[in-house]
Design a protein that fits this description.
- The complex is a heterodimer of chains A (276) and B (172).
- Chain A folds into two domains: 58 residues; 169 residues, Thrombin, subunit H (Beta Barrel), CATH 2.40.10.
- Chain A contains three helices and twelve strands, in the order H-H-E-E-E-E-E-E-E-E-E-E-E-E-H.
- In chain A, helix 1 packs across helix 2.
- The N and C termini of chain A lie far apart (118 Å).
- Chain B is globular and about 45 Å long.
- Chain B has one domain.
- Chain B is 69% helix and 2% strand.
- Chain B has 172 residues and is an all-alpha fold.
- A two-stranded antiparallel ribbon of chain B has the order 1-2.
- Classes of the chains: A alpha+beta (276), B mainly alpha (172).
- Chains A and B meet through helix 1 and helix 2 of A and helix 3 and helix 4 of B.
């Protein structure tokens, strides 16, 4: 019983102590200019930190729409860039055809499923024929490198034949000397492909850039595919390893290239074949 | 201060008030050492004083000092703190056989060494908290410690001097 009273006794003095100290502390902060300014400054720091955190959280939830906006904007810029380079090509021609400027247009698409570990890899996009995508169109990644070619389309989805597919070959050029070849992938490492069919008299070096040839019409000339990683000369031919620019393991958005003159080119070529 | 002797409480109050406000108001030895002799009033209260009345006395005395030194709340804060921890310090320093019921805190009653230990501890705590509050920034910890140590020596010296000064008058 005595210890109970002692407990209350000590408790009472502790309460009085805390009340008095809080009161005095409040006075210190309230009535001393320096202490109050630095106290309220530090509370501003605290407020700022809280608001910053809140903003970060909000930003996280906005990321989806921010990403979409950025991807759309990138598409627009890419289109303008392509138009600018087409315009430059035009300035060298005698008869300027302004339709050339708008030859390529881009559609943003999100990669909804992807694989890199099989021998025949495909990825699926969330845009289809309703967004103007047709089989055969080229697909480039956000890093600017070639990703693949559209294989099939439904009204809202498309599947794309990735470079990482043993059935897919892409016409390529080594920028040094415009040397022609094909890009082929035979399974394994998802960041490495092979450049085949390079004639042995050409001089190429490690680090050379490999771009699309533009001959197939899926891609304009000069879309980067990768860089030469190693060249081995086995006497009969070159064995060239290519480091791919596109990181297929981390693709979220891609651009589908729409070549408006593709139909015209195909019709002409078919006609030529028939007339032979 | 004799336990239960209200007159001595009042006389000590006047003594410390006058010393602090008139004599030690603007003295700073070597530019560092300040004398907060007024804390002697809390330190010298009888051992049997309960913490609750002592804290109320401390906060009033501290606020009074604050009003003279333009340090709103700082002295009161430290005084309340000293009044609160004083019983614990006394418990730690309990001599063999415990305190007498009539024990008063003075050099002549408790002995020189005990008094120095007790007073130095409380004065050091008081000064450290006060200078920390004043600087409002533990980044100046070196300056705070230098000021605390020199001021503790100064205040302690004056407090012990007062003990010998009033020894005779207490004993008549």
């Amino acid at each position: 019983m005595q210890s109970l009273f002692e407990f209350f006794y000590r408790f009472r003095s502790l309460i009085l102590f805390l009340v008095l100290e809080i009161f005095c502390g409040w006075m210190v902060v309230r009535f001393n200019t320096y202490q109050s300014s630095s106290f309220f400054n530090s509370s501003n720091v605290l407020t700022g930190a809280v608001l910053q955190t809140k903003d970060n959280v909000n930003y996280y939830f906005k990321l989806r729409s921010v990403n979409n906006d950025l991807a759309e904007e990138n598409t627009r810029l890419r289109q303008q860039l392509q138009q600018a380079s087409q315009r430059k090509l035009l300035s060298d021609e005698k008869v300027a055809d302004t339709a050339r400027i708008y030859q390529y247009s881009y559609v943003t698409a999100k990669v909804v499923s992807n694989s890199t570990n099989k021998l025949s890899n495909y990825f699926t996009l969330d845009k289809g024929t309703q967004d103007g995508i047709k089989p055969g169109m080229g697909v480039v990644s956000t890093k600017g490198g070639v990703a693949g070619r559209v294989k099939n389309c439904s009204s809202h989805y498309s599947t794309v034949l990735s470079i990482l597919n043993d059935k897919n070959t892409i016409d390529a050029r080594v920028t040094r000397g415009n040397v022609a070849g094909y890009i082929e992938w035979k399974g394994g490492n998802p960041i490495e492909a092979e450049l085949i069919n390079v004639a042995k008299h050409h001089k190429i070096f490690e680090g050379d850039t490999i771009v699309t040839s533009g001959s197939s019409g899926n891609f304009p000339y000069g879309v980067i595919i990768g860089t030469i990683k190693s060249i081995v000369d086995d006497g009969k031919k070159y064995n060239i390893k290519v480091k791919l620019t596109t990181d297929f393991t981390a693709m979220s958005f891609v651009y589908v290239i729409n070549n408006k003159m593709e139909g015209e080119k195909e019709t002409l070529e078919e006609k030529s074949l028939k007339n032979k | 201060m004799r336990p239960g002797n209200i007159i001595s409480y009042i006389l000590y109050f006047i003594l410390f008030f006058v010393l602090q406000v008139i004599l030690f108001r603007n003295i700073a030895l070597f530019g560092y050492a300040l004398c907060f002799i007024y804390i002697g009033y809390i330190i010298l209260f009888p051992i049997t004083t309960k913490p609750v009345p002592l804290m109320l006395i401390a906060v009033s005395f501290g606020l009074l000092m604050d009003s003279f030194f333009d340090t709103a709340g700082m002295n009161a804060f430290v005084c309340v703190f000293i009044a609160y921890i004083r019983p614990y310090i006394l418990k730690v320093l309990t001599p063999a056989g415990g305190y007498d019921a009539t024990a008063e805190i003075s050099v002549s009653y408790m002995g020189f060494v005990w008094f120095i230990k007790y007073a130095a501890l409380l004065i050091f705590i008081h000064h450290f908290i006060f200078f920390t509050l004043e600087a409002w920034n533990l980044g100046n910890i070196v300056t705070i410690l230098i000021r605390t140590i020199f001021s503790t020596i100064f205040t302690l010296f004056v407090l012990v001097l007062l003990q010998y000064f009033f020894k005779r008058s207490d004993n008549y």
